[in-house]
Amino acid sequence: MMSDWLIYFLGAIAILSACYVLFTSNLLFAAFALVLTFISIALLYLVMGAEFIAVTQIMIYVGGIIVLIIFGVMLTNKLGNEPPRSGSHNKFIAALVSVSMFGLLCFAIVQMNFSNDMIGGSLLQIKKIGQVLFTDYLILFELAGILLLIALIGASVIASKKDAA
Amino acid sequence: MMLELFIVSAFLFSIGLAIVITRKNAIFVLMGIELMLNASNINLIAMGGANGQGVFFGLFVIVIAAAEAAVGLALVLKIYHHYNTIELDKVNELKD
Question: Is residue A101 part of a domain?
Fold first, then answer.
């Protein structure tokens, strides 16, 4: 089936670029590999039939969060010619914990029985998403707006140079 | 199809966990957290739910991830101004 091969391909790209983030020591390269991961995850959403989430993923993650992260990289490194590098520690513990976490998750996934194949968001057109968002999820929607406002104000207060006494 | 998506998401979650544990740089740790949030989001959207609740859950997860990234990077900048480094193993005292 076509979509199965697409899922294998996009999943492989996502996993490989995430592994690059794990193993590289250059912060900027890691940020750009993360862009690749997020775009392939957005394409996976598209294969699942959730178009709106795919577009939202690209807009917020690639257009917002990665830009924030790159700003963070540029603001927290000393000026100079050497690239922004960073080491790592706790390698053995990390390998142990993450491999056992992967094994546990796979164990749980294999034990699940998938009764119905691929419900996904293919039934959800954007019109219906808008209608449901403003009727069933109205309180949650407004709370998300307030949360974003609080995060915006809080971030600018925290990052401001002068000490708020 | 669902099985492969779940395995991909489990793998991405484990890689994110490994990044959070191994890295010294705080921005790398934030990247790992974003990766873990994305992995859980794949599960939510793959499940979908009878009326597509999973899509809405995924949407709100993305919103909260944006808020988390903004506040986290503001904290990282503040730590950098205070300690002049963001290596997490050197940020280990409460007063200067």
Answer: no
Shortest Cα distance from A44 to chain B (angstroms)? Answer: 8
Q: How many domains in chain B?
A: 1
**A81/chain B closest Cα distance in angstroms:** 18
What value of ipTM does the predicted structure carry? 0.91
Distance (Å, rounded) from C-alpha A135 to C-alpha A139? Answer: 9
Structure tokens at A119: 């419900």
Mean pLDDT of A19-23: 92
Distance CA B3, CA B9 (A): 10
Closest partner residue to A53 (CB to CB) among B6, B14, B45 is B45
Evaluate whether residue A61 is within a structural domain: yes
Is any Cβ of chain A less than 8 angstroms from the Cβ of B55? yes
* Longest pairwise C-alpha distance within chain B: 55
Q: Band of the pLDDT at A32, cuts 50, 70, 90?
A: very high
pLDDT tens digits along A102-153: 999 999 988 887 765 555 445 567 888 888 889 989 999 999 999 999 999 9
Whole-number pLDDT of residue A13: 95
CA distances in angstroms from A29 to A18, A21, A25, B74, listed in the order given: 11, 8, 8, 22
Evaluate whether A37 touches B30 at the Cβ level (below 8 Å): no
Quote the domain boundaries for residue B65. 2-83
